[in-house]
C-alpha cells in the first residue's frame, strides 16, 4: 500500500461536481443537485461496504495489517478504521478507551 495521487476517474467526478456548483441557471442546478443527492444516497451503502471489505481483508491477513497503517493508507483516523471494521455507521457511539490503554 502506498500513497498515490487521486485516480483520474475520481478527479473527473470531482470536476463534474464542481461544474454543477457553477451552473448559471439556479433551477437547472437545483434539478441536477436533486438527482445527484438521490443517486448518492443509493450508492452510499455500497461504497461503505466496498471500503469495509478492504479493511476486513487487510485485518484478516496473517499477521493483521495494523489499524494505524490502514488509517494512513485510507487517509482516515484510527478510530474510523475501527468503526469501518465493526460496520458502525458514521457518528456512532464508539466505546471510550479505558484509562489503562
Find the structural class using helix and strand composition.
mainly alpha
Q: Which consecutive residue ranges, at least 5 long each, have pLDDT under 50?
A: none
Biggest sheet layout:
none
What's the total count of β strands? 0
Mean pLDDT: 86
Order of helices and strands: HHHH
Treating each run of at least 4 consecutive H or I residues as one helix, how many helices? 4
Globally, the shape reads elongated
Secondary structure layout plus pairing:
Layout lengths: L7 H14 L4 H35 L6 H8 L3 H9 L15
Helix pairs in contact: 3-4
Short description:
The protein is mainly α and 101 residues long.
Salient structural properties:
single chain, 101 residues, elongated, mainly alpha
Structure description:
- It is built from 4 helices and no strands.
- The chain is mainly alpha-helical and 101 residues long.
- The mean pLDDT is 86.
- It starts with 7 loop residues before the first helix and ends in a 15-residue tail after the last helix.
- It has helices at residues 8-21, 26-60, 67-74, 78-86.
Amino acid at each position: 500500500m502506498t500513497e498515490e495521487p487521486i485516480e483520474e476517474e475520481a478527479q473527473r467526478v470531482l470536476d463534474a461536481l464542481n461544474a454543477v456548483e457553477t451552473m448559471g441557471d439556479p433551477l437547472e442546478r437545483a434539478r441536477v443537485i436533486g438527482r445527484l443527492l438521490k443517486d448518492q444516497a443509493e450508492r452510499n451503502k455500497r461504497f461503505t461496504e466496498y471500503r469495509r471489505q478492504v479493511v476486513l481483508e487487510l485485518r484478516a491477513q496473517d499477521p493483521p495489517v495494523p489499524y494505524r497503517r490502514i488509517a494512513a493508507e485510507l487517509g482516515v483516523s484510527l478510530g474510523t478504521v475501527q468503526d469501518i471494521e465493526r460496520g458502525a455507521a458514521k457518528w456512532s457511539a464508539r466505546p471510550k478507551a479505558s484509562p489503562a490503554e
